[in-house]
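Two proteins follow. First one:
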Amino acid sequence: AQDIGFPSIFLFSDPSAGYFGDLWFKGNPEYERVNPSMEGLAPEFGTFTYPSTVSNEGASTFITIGDISVQADTMSFTISSSLLADGFPDTSLHIGLVYDFDNDGVQEIAGGQESIWVAQESDITIRNDFYQPVGAVYDWSVIYIDQVLHLAINEVSNGSNTKILFFQWQADEQTFQWVQDTIIASNNVLVMSNSTGSPVFITDAIYQVQTVVINDDGTVDSLNSRPWASAADLNLDGEAEYLYIDYQLVDTPNFYGTLEAKHMNGVT
């Protein structure tokens, strides 16, 4: 195993230097010498071990290589990232949306491909199927209809149209119930929410690459050409602010950017 951050070519150097020929296995006395707290345990490499898994610039990779077995013809180990929840990513789930529809502190996870299902974040293996699409599903969103939260699913219909289906969460049954659907003459529809009325359907291509917010007073703010942007009403004044990360110091070790918040009015 070679130290991800600090490779070395010196044959008899301290193992903390990370010589590429070092043999790491459970019971290796050299590993226990430089990591005394791991004596008797399976070797593990992370941010604070020797060798470590930090990058060449000294920034954390959030990767842990652990559970390294004893030396044998076949050995095993695990690789994990502290940035990922256990079991994720799992592309086979085709997760479309995660949201707490009933505000109980537990997220509902909706996904699927041939059959659309919903599960609780506490146990994603228990899934309730609630819809079988005929066409491909290409977008999921949380929408208000008359001040009631709904799940909206965009499904391709007849090749060039979109069937947008609205479902309401049923807390007792732990599933969604179909409420209504509509057909839009476009295969690329953006559904926007208006908490006091009906949803708005956007088909113009220009709005597909913009962040668009309808304020309480009816004015519309838009934002484009800004990577990693999100919109939110931070001070609850009915007008949106946008959040973005400024990457001015990308070459500085351990620098993750500066989170900025600015008013959207007048910003394009």
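Second one, unrelated to the first:
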Amino acid sequence: MDRSLRFVDVVKGQRRWPPPVWLMRQAGRYLPEYRKLRSGAGSFLDLCYQPKLAAEVTIQPVRRFGMDAAILFADILLVAEALGQGLRFDEGVGPILEPKIDAHSLSQLDLAGAEDRLKPIYETVSLVRSGVNPETAVIGFCGAPWTVATYMAAGGPPGEHIEAKLWAYGDPRSFADLIDMIIELSIDYLVGQIDAGADAVKIFDSWAGVLSEDQFDLWVVAPTKKLIAGVKSRRPNTPVIGFPRGAGVLYDRYIDRTGIDAVALDTTIPMSFGRALQKKCPVQGNIDPMALRAGGKVLDRAVDTVLENLGSGPLVVNLGHGVNKHTNPEHVGQLVRRVHQAKDPG
């Protein structure tokens, strides 16, 4: 079936008005329907691996608010678990990965059979694709190699990234081996999501901004380029969105050197810089999640600022980070309506 997807048009470089809108973490704890479903689903990982439930969670915000895209409900660390590292989520703590991976324990990881462990995720994507309107885009995703590696080395939230940084400085060859394993599985993972029905995929590099310039080139730019090339060699027509959160002025380098189709801007990116980046590729962003939480006139101004500054080019309206769990759902509806009802400045 031919589908008219404004979101895909935009991330491939076309301007559409009103611009498409979706939000990072648009599915989740701020929604009462999610909390109700979550209470009977077991652990967070149980929810991720149950396709019918994960698909329902993915679709919930689209059903309620009418976003232009549904993003897969999963977690970036499923790749780490598929490689053989134990993973659980502790309340109030977050992800716990055991054992911590370093140069000595790297041999415990295994690519053999890793993709098979991710097959429930492909089923989720397929259910989402059949469960939303044809005009609604479906977005798949993975964590960027550097960001996933920081969690694997720390055994949980990476804090000051001491483990990953010391490993990368002290034994870059074995750290590169870990990065390459993540890349290889992530290529298969994204291709599997595309084949299941994803119209675009996104690479989340949540910790791209913690590296020095030379290390950014080594562990963000080069691995992302390799990951994108691997996906494009097999599925050349599917757009890939990158999110090098916190990269600041290095956003330029990321766009120029990775082969990314579109880039998500974090909250700190000034509008003037966003316009300059938009001359190179489509941009997504970058409303402050706290403006969304505040709602009212604050939120209206934040939406209008993005539309006025970036609306003349290819733009996907989004946040600069994920929806805060304490956000009033009515504010999300306000944001989506504000975008969809905006007048084209021409």
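SUMMARY FIELD: The mean pLDDT is 97. The longest helix spans residues 172-196.
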